Every structure is written in structure tokens, then in C-alpha cells.
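User: Before I run my own analysis I want an independent prediction to cross-check against. Here's the chain; please return only the C-alpha cells and, at the end, one sentence I can use as a sanity check.
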Amino acid sequence: MLSLQKPSVALIRNFLADESGRPNISSTVGAAKRKLTGGYVVDHSRIKLGEGEAVFHAASAALQRWEQFRLGWVEAWSPSNSIRSGQVVAVMARVMGL
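Assistant: C-alpha cells:
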């Protein structure tokens, strides 16, 4: 969905409800586990955060809080939802200041 303004909470909830009812028939499911053709690029970027159990738990907690989307121009909705398999998430991004 494209919009010139940030969508309302009601519009986002309706969008998520509509998408939640659709079966996932995408041929790209699991794409990072296999070699793709047709112009796809799988990003395998990595960075070492540190070592040990404390670093692992801190990184896991950050992912659970959707910190990977706190970039100033992109946001996951709803960040208050816990991450679980099969969950539909809306990702909103501003493009070129819009």
C-alpha cells in the first residue's frame, strides 16, 4: 500500500487483518536457504556483537523489541506485539522524505 501520509492505526489494523487471512503462497518463502535466480539477492551481512551468553540474551531481547526497525525512517507495526512464527507484520517506510 502506498500513501502520502502515515496510515491511521485503524487502517493498519484492517490491513493486517486482511493479510492474516491470506494463505502464504510466495515462492520466496525459505529463499535464504537456497540459491535463487532471476535477479534476487539474499543479504548475508553479519557483524559480531560480542561473545558470551549475556550478549546473546541482549541481542535476542533487542530483536523481540523490534529494535532492528528503529532506524528513524522505517517502523514495524505493531512493535508491541511479540514475535512469533506466522505473524503478519506491517513495515512502514518513508521514501525520499515522503
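Sanity check: DSSP finds two helices and two strands in the chain.
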